[in-house]
Design goal:
alpha/beta; Purple Acid Phosphatase, chain A, domain 2; seven-stranded mixed sheet; six-stranded mixed sheet; about 15% strand
């Protein structure tokens, strides 16, 4: 599990002194990479894509084909073999960071001119739209872009299909394996999605803890650039400059490209990713995000939007307001859970993903069994929610009929075998919480968990009010620590009625 500097007792918050230290360290890192980089990033000028990335009509033109990309990656050592070290520079598929920078520019340009830039797509206006759409400044700078996290709605016709993938953490081999499989299926043609009925949603944590975060981000940006209305990326807790400083991505980027890597501009990419995506059809939606529920945000206005793609700034998160509006919450919790809520819930406007409090969509977790507390604090991490309180929060939907049915997420992984990881693996890579009533036995083993009655079928009927956790890809220290070698993804088949929705869970053997 990834930890941040959260106090060990209420209220849950990152220490301001730690935050200041992190930001000072970051600016020192940028400065040490060369003043020329800072001047180029602060100029505000939009870089022009090079000819090999843009044809005369202005449309995207590949700098390399998918087959060429696979060939360029085939000799990369696995993360398990590297154990945190960097591969030899001669093996890197992106030798010159210029093509990476150009892809980043295309990605950002797409956001600046796409739905995010359309005022009518926002159900509530952004406080500082001009600043938000200015990629030359960052929220961690003095006088820079304010931190403006937002939610997104993606409403699709009933016959569409949505593919979901959990944490990647710098695992390019698993990502390439998945895309190769989709090409073999005919779902993809290279990096392009073949049918307008297919969509992809990534659930956050793309870099850190692996040596190929740069390569993963290149592929994700490439997918988004080539499929702007069909590929979506949620913002995980590692899409935060504070965590990338401590968990490997900045070290990786520095080792590979030094001052040529555009770190500040890269950090702005994160700001264009929604912290939660409500994906659905007709009146039913799945809450798709990295972490957990956030009681301080009510999606009613967003779900009621008539647009198929709509956005809503989180604004002020009203966690105490939730408790006041839902007095039944106290009856659902034990006295200890109610005390946790009273001591830790606050009404606040986020200044960063962790200040003054963590954003639940990016950080929170869920209990495993139905008998565990409805609300507790995992010290050094965030809140842990139980089934009844989660259902109450999901029921905040539009009273006219729009409803959030369940949660698709990732995040809750460990590098050592524990009850959660055992259940994710035994469930084929997608675990539904609260299937068991009793709290996991402290003496259980991976072998004993095989006897549990968990959902393992390839095709599963969704359960109203449930939470589904997607596994982290296997060429990672998570895979090494838990001894699994398969990647998992889900394919959601939408229908007019939620009762007819199906989730197909697929496993792919990864052999780097």
């Amino acid at each position: 599990m990834d930890l941040i500097a959260i106090t060990m007792e209420p209220p849950v918050t990152i220490r301001p002194s730690i935050k200041a230290l992190l930001l000072v360290s970051l600016m020192g890192w940028v400065t040490s990479c060369g003043q020329g980089l800072v001047e180029r990033e602060d100029s505000g000028a939009t870089r022009q894509p090079s000819p090999n990335l843009q044809d005369r009509s202005g449309k995207f033109s590949a700098d390399r084909t998918f087959d060429q990309w696979l060939k360029q990656c085939q000799n990369l050592p696995s993360n398990r073999l590297l154990k945190g070290a960097m591969p030899e520079r001669s093996l890197l598929p992106i030798q010159d960071p210029e093509s990476l920078t150009q892809m980043l520019d295309l990605f950002i340009e797409q956001q600046l001119n796409g739905p995010l830039s359309q005022s009518e797509a926002w159900v509530r206006p952004l406080e500082s739209k001009e600043s938000f759409l200015n990629p030359s400044t960052a929220y961690f700078e003095k006088g820079g872009t304010p931190f403006m996290p937002f939610a997104m709605k993606l409403a699709l016709p009933p016959d569409h299909r949505v593919m979901f993938h959990g944490d990647l953490h710098g695992d390019i081999h698993s990502l390439n394996t998945w895309l190769r499989h989709l090409n073999q299926e005919g779902v993809l043609e290279g990096f392009r999605i073949a049918s307008s009925k297919d969509h992809m949603v990534f659930l956050g944590d793309y870099t850190d803890r692996g040596s190929y975060g740069v390569e993963v981000m290149y592929v994700l940006m490439r997918l988004k650039v080539e499929n702007p209305d069909q590929v979506w990326m949620a913002r995980g807790n590692h899409e935060d400059i504070q965590l990338t400083m401590n968990y490997g991505f900045l070290r990786e980027a520095t080792a590979k490209y030094g001052p040529a890597f555009p770190i500040k501009r890269f950090s702005r990419l994160y700001d264009f990713l929604p912290v939660v995506i409500y994906v659905g059809s007709v009146n039913d939606f799945v809450q798709c995000n990295h972490g957990g529920v956030e009681p301080g945000y009510d999606p009613e206005g967003l779900l009621r939007s008539s647009l198929s793609i709509a956005f809503d700034p989180l604004g002020k998160l009203e966690q105490k307001g939730f408790l006041n509006a839902h007095p039944q919450a106290r009856a659902l919790m034990s006295e200890s859970g109610w005390s946790v809520a009273q001591a830790n819930y606050a009404d606040f406007k986020p200044l960063s993903p962790t200040v003054p409090k963590v954003i639940g969509f990016m950080w929170n977790d869920f209990s495993i069994s139905r008998e565990e507390p409805q609300l507790s604090v995992d010290p050094g991490r965030a809140f842990v929610y139980g089934h009844a309180l989660t259902s109450l929060i999901l029921d905040q939907g539009d009273p006219s009929g729009k409803k959030v049915r369940c949660v698709f997420r990732a995040h809750q992984h460990s590098s050592v075998s524990n009850p959660m990881m055992r259940r994710i693996i035994q469930s084929g890579g997608v675990f539904r919480h609260w299937q068991e009533r009793a709290t996991p036995n402290a003496r259980e083993t991976p072998e004993s968990v095989k006897g549990l009655s968990l959902e393992k079928e390839r095709e599963r009927v969704l359960v109203d009010g449930a939470v589904y956790t997607f596994n982290v890809s296997p060429d990672s220290y998570y895979g090494a620590g838990n001894q699994y070698d398969f990647d998992a993804f889900g394919r959601l088949l939408l229908k007019a009625r939620f009762e007819d929705w199906k989730l197909q869970v697929n496993q792919l053997k990864v052999q780097p």
